[in-house]
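Lecture notes, unit on protein representations.

Consider one protein chain, 70 amino acids long.
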Amino acid sequence: MPTRPPHCCRVADDIEAKIRSGDHAPGQQLPPVSEIGELDNVARSIAYRAVKELHERNLVYGQPALAKRG
C-alpha cells in the first residue's frame, strides 16, 4: 500500500508546481508562511518546513519568512 508524502512535502510540491507553471515569477516574494498554512489548511510549522524544503530544492532563496522564487 503506497504511503502519502508528509504534509510539508505535499505543500512544497504544490508551491513548486506554481513556480514551474509561472504563477510565481522569478524574484516574486512567496506568500507569508502563515498564509501558505491557511491556503493549504496546514499548521504554520508545516508551511515553514515546506518553504525550507523549497530552499533545499534550490527553488527559492532568502530567509524562509522572506523567500523569493529564484
